[in-house]
Amino acid sequence: MKLDDSATTLRRVAPATGILLSALGVLVFSFSFPATAWSLHGFGAWTTSGGRCVLAALLAAVALKACRVPLPRRTQWRGIAVVSAGCVLGFPILTTLALRTSSTAHSAVVIGMLPLATAVVSSVLTGRRPSRRFWLAAGAGAVAVLTFTVLQSQGAPSGADLLLFGALVLCAFGYAEGGRLAAEMPGWQVIAWALVVGLPVTVPLTAVALATEPIHLSGQAVAGFAYVALLSQSGGFVAWYKGMAQIGVARASQLQLAQPLLTLVWAVLLLHEQLPVAAPITAVVVLGCIAVTQRART
Question: Could you give the CA distance from residue 285 to residue 257 in angstroms, rounded to a whole number?
Fold first, then answer.
């Protein structure tokens, strides 16, 4: 009985911890767009997107060296490359370029579809099939967020929207592969190796950007750049991937349905953007969908 009780306790604690870690990752990521907007006040788009990855990669390399982490197995390099392409290169670069012409609130549309896209990619890659209830709740949440954000832009797609869609697809693959790898190695090592793998691209990109884009240093710009480099690009992923490893990619990704609404709140408080009247209604719908997905059996 004691062994059974201990096993039951572990099963209960692990999901609870996984949910908290995933939620912490979502909270960190929800500040990413406002922080990027701050960074763009003093740094160019290419400097911001490339520089954040270089700084995060240097810190990751130091951590890997200090902890004497062995090289990943041969079978893990493909997944790390996918994480690097999606979460180190694709998403930061494309969303930063989009934020040059798109508001923070509108850009949150990419986050609205990301949980569902991640669940779909994870299902295809792993062969797992979440329940119909799970898919209905996830789809409803995604539709609610998409309807809210698209209506705010009068439904007119733009070049920024295409960049955001590309970022969405790449990041979904990066999240799904990162969550899978986090079951085999610590989450911080997943993003650390992905950052290091991206250096051959991010270093020359940042060097060219620094030589061609003007820089206007300010406290706000430096704070924004530091946030996306240290938290959005590294710290947030540590909690996010560890949480995914404990509760599953599909289920963890649904917590991210709350991210666009959090981002809207920060956009109002930090960037003084106007908060749409429909935001509270959408928040209730999305939170209800999250509750259903967390209870749905996968």
Answer: 10
CB contact set of 109 (below 8 Å; sequence gap of 6+) = 145, 146, 149, 150, 153, 161, 164, 260
In tens digits, what is the pLDDT along the chain, a chain of 298 residues? Answer: 444 444 444 345 557 888 899 999 999 999 999 999 999 999 999 999 999 999 999 999 999 999 999 999 999 999 999 999 999 999 999 999 999 988 888 788 777 788 878 878 887 777 777 788 888 888 888 888 888 777 776 766 678 888 998 998 999 999 889 888 988 888 889 999 999 999 999 999 999 999 999 999 999 999 999 999 999 998 898 888 888 888 887 778 778 878 888 888 899 899 988 877 777 788 788 878 877 876 765 5
Concatenating the DSSP letter of every residue in 223-244 gives HHHHHIIIIIIIIHHHHHHHHH
The most distant pair of C-alpha atoms in the chain lies apart, rounded to whole Å, by 68
Considering only CA atoms, which of 101, 173, 138 is closest in space to residue 256? 138
Say how far residue 95 (Cα) sits from the centre of its chain: 11
Q: How far is CA 199 from the centre of its chain?
A: 20
Residues composing the chain:
298
Q: How far apart are CA 26 and CA 259, in angstroms?
A: 6
Q: Reduced to 3 states, what is the DSSP secondary structure of residue 71? A: coil
Instruction: Give residue limits of the domains in the chain.
Output: 17-295
The residue with tokens 């990301």 is 114
pTM of the predicted model as reported, rounded to 2 decimal places: 0.84
Ramachandran angles phi, psi of 185, nearest 5°: -145, 160
Amino acid at 8: T
What's the gap between Cα 257 and its chain centre?
11
> How crowded is residue 171: how many other Cβ atoms within 10 Å of its Cβ?
26
